[in-house]
Amino acid sequence: MKSRPFIIPIFIPNMGCPHRCVFCNQTSITGYRSGRISSEQVRERISAFLNLKTKHRGAREVAFYGGNFFGLPASYRESLLDEAQRFVKQGLVEGIRFSTRPDTVTHDALEALNAYTVCVVEVGAQSMNDTVLSLSRRDHTAEDTTRAIRLLKEHGLKTGIQIMPGLPGDTIESILETGRTVAELNPNLVRIYPTVVVKNTVLEDWYRSGRFRPLSLADAVEMTKSLYHLFDAQAISVIRMGLQATASLSEPGVVVAGPFHPAFGHLVHSAIFLDRAVRELEMQDRPSKRVALHVHPHDVPKLRGLRSNNINKLIQRYHLEELQVLPDPALPENALRVTTLS
Ligand code: SF4
Fold it and tell me: Does any ligand 1 atom lie closer than 6 A to the CB of residue 21?
């Protein structure tokens, strides 16, 4: 199995943004204050992360996150890239990645990347529904994302797309339509961040005045599960589901409302395994009250669910007398087999 890249994150909170989108406060999310990060700070941060590296980790990649990278002044952008590229030249880092708004991806900006080892560009699409984008004050359209991904691919770059189910104006249909449209664009990877109300955002005001209602945690897990299946069916990697539980995001009052959970991705994978177990149990010719569920050892926590929730649900649903979860290294990941206990 290919190791996941070892990401060295360099946060540029809200830098290069033409305005503030209604849901966004990168300082609250990342814990980093906005303001120019100097070349020296970039160098120090990369060095500090490299000292953490263990030999089991995958390719080392410097990632500029939390802002609109192509929106930065060209000279400053290049000074950041120069610093990261120095580490690439020394063989200490394998590549560079960054996130950017779709409407800033231009032919000229991409040509300027030729001097650098950029491995992935992640586009913050958030939605592929123009009404949702407008209500979220994104100031770009779905077509901008389509055009950005096409341009990136023409320049031979790997692409990522970030989406945020549950934005203002979103419905189950618009969320799934966003998923289908993104899948058609066929990016290399996707991140799914169900919309959370963060303090000091316009969305917080709208939530407090009753103008915005976020998805419940249960609905967000269900929606994300459907999106995951959509992307998985097209072999598009879903590399993140739910906001990362940074120290700053976990501080009291920073998340005002919405489907934030420190183990959101685990909840989605557990929901997928619950469906799988139900499907397999329903297919039993002669259902038994004493069964064993066999999964790859990596999948045991996903099958059990948080606090063994899935196990309890299955026992209740099928009135089981005994249910064992048995790790089986011979099984591939994401497979599940049912046997009857003697
Ligand atoms: S969502 Fe992206 S473009 Fe909008 S304010 Fe935040 S970092 Fe800037």
Answer: yes
Asked if the model's pLDDT at residue 261 lies above 70, the reply is: yes
Domain with CATH 3.20.20.70 in the chain: 6-262
Indicate the pTM of the whole model: 0.94
68: Cβ below 6 Å to ligand 1?
Answer: yes
Q: Would you call 302 exposed, middle or buried from its count of C-beta atoms within 10 A (0-12, 13-18, 19+)? A: buried
Q: What residues are paired with 63 via a beta bridge?
A: 9, 97
Query: 67 CB under 6 A from ligand 1?
Result: yes
Distance of CA 30 to the CA centre of its chain: 14
Considering the domain 6-262 in this protein, what is its CATH number?
3.20.20.70
Instruction: Collect all residues with Cβ–Cβ distance below 8 Å to 157 and sequence separation of at least 6.
Output: 110, 113, 118, 119, 120, 121
Give the residue from 192, 175, 164, 194 showing the smallest Cα distance to 260.
194
For ligand 1, atom 8, name the residue with the nearest CA: 17
Residue 7: phi and psi, rounded to 5, are -85, 130
CB of 17 shorter than 6 A to ligand 1: yes
For residues 103-118, average pLDDT: 96
Residue holding tokens 């289908």?
180
